[in-house]
Structure formats: C-alpha cells, structure tokens
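User: I've been going back and forth on whether these two constructs are worth ordering. Before I decide, could you fold them both?

Assistant: Sure. I'll take them in the order you sent them. The first construct and its structure tokens:
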Amino acid sequence: MSIGFKERYTDEFDDRKYLVYADDRLPHTPCDASVVCDRPIQAADTTPRPASGQAGLKHDQGKPRWDLLPIEIIGKIVDVMTFGAKKYDDNNWKNVDNGAERYYAAAMRHLAAWRRGERADAESGLHPLAHALCGIMFAFWLEEHKSDER
C-alpha cells in the first residue's frame, strides 16, 4: 500500500526530535494520527518546494560552475594530449626533467606561432593555442604537485 503524507512536522519524543508525518489513509489510525519515523533527526525539512507546475529548485549557489567551461576547447586540448600520448606515452609529461620550464618554453613557442598567424601545428595539425594551453596546464600541474620543480 502506498502511503501519501499530507503534512510534515517535527515532534519531540524522549528528548530527541523525530520527523513526524500525518496521514489520513492509515487503516488503523484516525485521520489526525501521526506516524513517527524510526530515526531521530535534528529538524524538519524546511527546504522550499516549488508549487505544482513551477520550475524546480536546485541549491547549487557557491559551487564551481563547470558549465562555464567551453567544452569544445577542452576537446581540442584532449586532442593534443592524445597526440602526445601516442608520440611519447600516457602521462609522460609528468616525468619530464625540468618540466615546468620546458613546458613554459613550449607554450611560448606555440603562442608565438599563433601570433604569426599559424592555425595548425606543422607536426600534429592541431591548433597552436591548444598546444599552448596544454603546456600551461602541464606547468601548472607540475607547480602544484612537484614544488621542487622550477
């Protein structure tokens, strides 16, 4: 039997708060009787609920906005990383000696190529800015994870 609850409130019992539901469809109780949940809670759920037919609520204020990241650009960075993994090895970039400096230099070379008007790297055929972003990302990761590398 499906039980539909028509109201929700808290009640104190044994010095603890319990979530209490009132239901008029329980066969063994009058319409104003209450059913007590089996676990104590701190307070009733007071989360605002949208009225029927209104847009739903989502409490995500203050959380990172991944939806702002331009996914098509991330895809181009992944293409560069895939090219690099085939050329060298998976995650090889993490083990390059003096990596932060070398990836800085590589990023600058790719930025300069882009400024000269290049729109495809001669070796990979991929956009030089995607290569530059990879180099910057690698240098940043190395700075965050290998502080002695600089």
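The second construct, handled the same way:
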Amino acid sequence: MEKIFTVVEVPKSKKVNIGTFYLAGEADIWWNTIKHKWQELELTWAKFTEELRAQFYPVMLQRQKEKEFMELKMTGSMTILQYASKFTELSRFAPEIVASERMKMRRFEEGLAFYIRNQLAGQPIKTYQELYEWAAEVERIKSELRVLNPVNLKRKWNDRGASSNIMASKKPTISSVKSSTTGPPEPCRKCSRMNHHTSECRIGTNQCVWCGSTDHLITACLKRLRAVEKGVAKPLAPLRQVPAPPRPPAVGRAYIMNRKEAANSSTVITGTFFSKFYAFFCST
C-alpha cells in the first residue's frame, strides 16, 4: 500500500480513505466496527496503521517475532534462499536492528552457516545484496563438490571447523617429539621402576618411600595404612628373619718348647699322664 501511495502521489488527507477501501476479510470487519469513533477526530495515516498493527499484530506477537528474528540461523537443510527469505520476513519486526545497511549485513552474516562465514571472512563486501550473492555462491560450490566427491566432502567442509581440529590434533606436541627422539625412559637404578628417575628415588634416603615425609618410614606411614584399608595398596610383606651365618670352627694351636723354657714360664703346667711331656695352654 505504501508503494502505491508513493507512485500515485496520494496526498496525506486521502490515504486513510483509500487504504480502508482496500481492506478485506477480518480487517474490513474490524474497520466497520471502529470507524464511527474516528468520525469526529482527525485520523491520520500514521495513527491508522498504528491501530491496525495493534489489532492484528499485538505487542506479544511482535516481541515473539522479534525474538525469532534475533535467533534466526541456517540450520539443518535450510538453503541460503530460504534463510534470506525468512530474514526479510522477520526483519520488519525489529527495524532498529536493521536500521542501517551495515547493521543489516552484520545480522545476516551472524545467522549464516559456519562454512559460509568462514569463506566470507576477509572479503571486501560493502552491500547487503553483495553479501547475499557471495553466500549463495559459496553454497553453490559446496553443492557441486558434494556431487563430485561425496566421500571427502564431509571431511573437507564439515562447517570448516572439524577439519581444522583434526589437523590440530595431528600436530606433534613437544612432549611427543621429545619422547620419540630420546627413546623409552630408563628404569630406576635403585628399584628398577619406570615411574621416576634414579635421582628421584627415595630408597636409601631418610624419606618415607610412600609419601616422601622425613618424619617416619614406610612401615609407620599413616597415609599408606589408610590406602591399605581402602584396598588401594597392598600390605607390606613381613620381614624375613635371615639366620646369621655360622661361625667357622676354631682352629687349635700347639706350641713346642723345651724343659728350660717350660720351667721359666709361669703359665705352663707340667704333669704326668701316660707319658711325660710339656704343654702350654694359651688363654687368649
């Protein structure tokens, strides 16, 4: 209706009469019901359109449509044509969001699929129409690639996000490069375990082997006792009593001396057994 008024150059005083003439259905019934209250008042075209929207587009519905416009995105199998059509339909419920060309472009781009936005990044786009044509071209290329190579398309596009994540996961980390160049870790030279280096081993130190405390040994470690109670650790094996090695038998020693040496020694005992001989007993 506004287009007709502009082309025909209808004066403001005639817009209400001409506009109400084209009303039909429920709108015509509504106008015939309320037009009598405007007979004595001056009804402008702006006031008429305001009353019309309030009747057929209440505030609750306007807010609902505005929220729908703000959350509009390309989802599922929605094409760029369907998205643009829905965008245009709902944009009239949020005129302040699309007040300028730049604001309209920003909102339109926010709802595009990620693979399209990724291709549009950095492009010198200046108008809404140009933005729509670029987006439609990206969608067309993707459709052609799907026909040519349906197997690798998902890997290549996948909203242009998954492929980059896969490539990032394939990049070797510093730790993996270091481990591949240095080879497998060497076992501890004290306990032969692989979870620490020899310099970190607590065996042979004044630290508890379990918790590292210097206040007690592993046999008195409360943390390990609690772990044993919970079944996390195994109890210590009882100490084996290793018998002391047998002492070697004493080897007897004999000393030979003559009668004169025996007479001069105070530690020599002389006597007659079966035959006469001299013996020396060493007490050391």
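Notes on the second construct follow. Residues 198-229 form one domain. The chain has a mean pLDDT of 76.
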